[in-house]
Amino acid sequence: MISSAVALRMEGVSKAYPGTLAVDAVDFEARVGEVHALMGENGAGKSTLMKMLAGSFCDYTGRIAINGKEVKLHSPALAKAHGVGMIYQELSLARPISIAENLLVGRLPSRFGFMLDRPAMMEEASRCLERVGLDLDPKTPVDAISQHEAQLVEVAKVLGNDPSILVMDEPTSALSRDETERLFAIMRKLKKAGLTIIYISHHLSEIFAVADRVTVLRDGQKIATRDVGAIAPSELVQMMVGEKIDEFYRRRTATVGRTVLKVRNLTRRGFFHDVSLHVKEGEIVGIAGLAGAGRTEVARSLCGLDPVDAGTVELDGRPLRQGSYEKAAGRGLYYLSEDRKRDGLFLRLSLRRNLLSALIAKNTTAGFHSDRRSGSTADAMIEELEIVAASPAADVGNLSGGNQQKALLGKWLAAEPRVLVLDEPTRGVDVKAKKKIHEAVIGLADRSKGIVLISSDLPELVGLSDRVVVMRTGRITGELSGEALNEESVLLAANGEREP
Amino acid sequence: MGCFVSDEFFTIKNQMGILNAVALLGIAASGMAFVTFSGHMADLSVPAIMAFSGIVTVAALPLGVVAAVGLGIAAGMAIGALNGLVVGLFRANPILWTLAVAFFMEGFMRFTWSNNQIYPDTAPVTAGAAFIGLFRVTVGPVPLIVVVMLLLFALGQVVLTRTRFGVETRLVGSSPAAAKTTGINVQRVVFVDFLAASVAASVAGIFLTSMNKLGVFYLGKGYDFKCVTAVVIGGMMLSGGRGHMLGVLGGVLVIGLLSNIMTFLGINTFQQNIVTGIIFIAVVWIQQSHLRRQGKDFV
Q1: What is the fold of B20-293?
Q2: What is the ipTM of this complex?
Q3: What is the mean pLDDT of chain B?
């Protein structure tokens, strides 16, 4: 029930950060009862535009009107009062506390003005859960429910404040296909009830599944707003990148050498069981599986970052000591973290320092360390990966997501690994950065390095890997390669629908 | 500014006096800087380490000055090693843990030495006399403690910028989790950082004991906070990974100058403490708001 009534109108809004104009005179309009997708590469300005709407900045310029009334969104409280609800990738729920308390935080019903009114709380919480189609006991702690349910509880929590505009920033990144479908069904229900939803996502398929209109941003500027029904995916991608990109994946013929990494019967109770795999020089081995299949857990344990209960790992024919990542890294087995901000990059240090951080041991003689021994390695990496930064001395934390991810990869490229374990190497990065990262990974394999690749991006996993090992509920269920390796076969195997 | 306060301010005697007065603080702060730099804020057991190394040195004087000083430093390092082990390996909160160690050590020292001050035998030509003289030794015109302080800062600067350990400390201070996935032995780095703090505190404690001619559990009181203040005024971020040793030396000198000027003005010690406290708050506030303005208060 899309009416022509405008719920949100932003006129000529801009926001500058030191050195960059993140949002540059953007006009944006969302109608009552529509799902309006916001697309663009990383650094295009989507997040900044939405933060503006959420009241994160008191120094934006331009005009914002909600339901025809001009408003100033200079604080999160003001934004909330004007009916803006935000759902971020990271959930804002307090884990050990009950769903009900999470839902009603800030507006808990009370008796005599100071006693918590439990029955009223449970009743109100049930009503909130019903709106998002969840049949859960509100007394359950958030700890005890699944990621997907937590996501919906978050939606219910925000809806509790009665917003007229709901912003969802990559809400499906932690959800499986089924769970995504269920979220979409609820979104459709909500928009029928007159809610305006602004939806940010990198997944084209999701946009076409759920959105009515789409607005594309590039380099802080608005490119266009179009009806989703009247635009082709390739056209949308074109608008995002601004130039024609060639076919993404080219089948390469790997020249494989000796076995460099051998994992035998690795087990960590409660996480994964009896995992065996091997990687040869010059080979890219993918690990496929749904969220919760244990891919990351296997990767971390085989590198020595997490403990194991049984099994062995051999690098170049010699066993690795378990639970000692320093030893593994010293011998050239590196792990690229799935979360660059948490345990990948040194955000407050310079790009150069980050790129050279894995070379410290190499640049040390008799305890003394000098970057000069690396010569122009950092500059070479910046050039090779086309990392965009003011200078090599710029803080990595100030770079855009795609460039941060390139820097993270550059750190390991500089270290010349024997085996590199890549955990979601292109999560949340734009198309161009993704291409660059893929080229670098293939280049690494061509230089006879072994690569283990974990990715939830199916085309990427299938396109880059020479072989794919499929995991399901903590066990390896099979292996796909050659003709048998395609997106469909991997997906079916990961879901346990078909024996690979 | 000092020259307006007193004609004596600019005399070499006064300037050397300032250096002399801040030397103990400087020595202790040069070690504390490693802990702050590694992202562990502060080692609050510094006063306990100072007192303990002093007491042990005095108690061990019958073995000779050199052996006694060696044992004193070793005693202080034992505490530092314990700190490094517990904070590094078991990830204890550094503030709470070192506070607990300080509390424990005070009790331990009062119990062991029955709450007494212990005095060295100061008869001429004994180890005790030599020990008492330690604080008053000069190298040419410069007091030994000033030389030691400057040496420690120079050494600290070289270690932090030119050695593997220093660079790794910077990475650990910036993000321990990222340092771990980079292949750095985070536990070992943190261990050595706390050990460095304890060595410096032990040296300061032994000089302080020599100056006071007695060893007692409360020597070193107040040095914990004064060290952190010097480190922070010197531009080191409490959150770790940013700053350098020469800045910390600057911070130490600022504190020395301030207290010298305030003394000339006739401001008493308690009021001076108030001023130091206010300066600390102001500096931390400026650091934080600076970070926030740049949108860098992540981590």
Answers
A1: ABC transporter involved in vitamin B12 uptake, BtuC (1.10.3470)
A2: 0.88
A3: 91
